[in-house]
Design a protein that fits this description.
The chain is of the alpha/beta class. Helix content is 31%, strand content 21%. The chain contains 7 helices and 7 strands. A 7-stranded mixed beta sheet has the order 4-3-2-5-6-1-7, with helices on both faces.
């Protein structure tokens, strides 16, 4: 990946391939987000939508998309590993179409792209697959049960407030023999940045508070997916290291990405 010099930040991501042959539970239909306490909702979804819309309108939105491009390509490779054609697929948190641009119409005949930010969908990368763009929250998918043959998601689900519910929503819209392939940041992502900020704050303030978004531990994801009704789970982990010349470059890059 893009290399300059230290410091280096690790982006640990977890790619997983699930093919549930039989539906184990039924989820309730999508409903609008309810107002709950801040303790239950660590992320401000409205603010996140504004951030993603802002990033999509920058002069060169693709300048900081190298990590999304890389992971999107790896997810597409997993789709190609499955020797079947998917008549209808769903990309949850599609952004500018980082997965779709790597897919072919021989593999996916039609694709629905869903994202909370309308500007990201408007600036989506062109693909040979017929696509429909829908503005919706990943936690509240506006689709009927047993709709899709394939659901994919790349570097989006770490921003939802209720990950178990998001998994249930995905399971709900999948057909009984459908496939879900997704990637999200793992628990060790930005480990160096978190440690540096904590050490600096301990030295100057005598204590520290979190400055980086929390990430789900890889060991917990299998359990969450099983509870959502998925089976035949395969969990892979990988690590991508990105090097920066200094902290200011790190913060500028993270702000432009709106990843964390």
């Amino acid at each position: 990946m893009r290399g300059l010099s230290r410091p280096a930040l690790r982006a640990g991501w977890c790619g997983r391939l699930w093919a549930p042959p039989r539906r184990a539970l039924a989820a309730s239909p999508p409903s609008p987000p309810a107002a709950t306490s801040g303790a239950l909702n660590p992320f401000d979804r409205r603010l996140k939508r504004k951030q993603k819309n802002w990033a999509a309108l920058q002069a060169e939105p693709a300048k900081c998309d190298y990590l999304r491009e890389e992971v999107g390509g790896r997810i597409a490779d997993r789709v190609f590993d499955i020797t079947r054609t998917f008549p209808l697929a769903l990309d949850v948190g599609s952004g500018r179409g980082y997965i779709a641009q790597h897919l072919t119409k021989e593999t996916v005949e039609k694709l629905i792209q869903v994202d909370v930010a309308e500007n990201a969908l408007k600036n989506a990368v062109e693909t040979e697959i017929p696509t429909v763009k829908v503005v919706a929250d990943e936690e509240f998918l506006p689709f009927k049960e047993n709709t899709f043959d394939l659901v994919v998601s790349s570097l989006s689900l770490h921003w939802v407030n209720d990950l178990p519910k998001a998994f249930k929503e995905i399971h709900h819209v999948l057909k009984p023999d459908g496939v879900f392939i997704g990637a999200m940041f793992g628990g060790d992502t930005l480990y160096e940045l978190r440690c540096s900020l904590q050490l600096a704050e301990l030295e100057r303030e005598g204590g520290f508070s979190p400055h980086v978004s929390p990430f789900t531990a890889v060991a917990d994801l299998g359990h969450l997916l099983s509870r959502a009704g998925f089976n035949t789970l395969t969990v892979d982990t990988d690590e991508i290291q990105v090097n920066y010349p200094g902290l200011f470059e790190v913060m500028e890059d993270l702000q432009a990405k709106t990843y964390f």
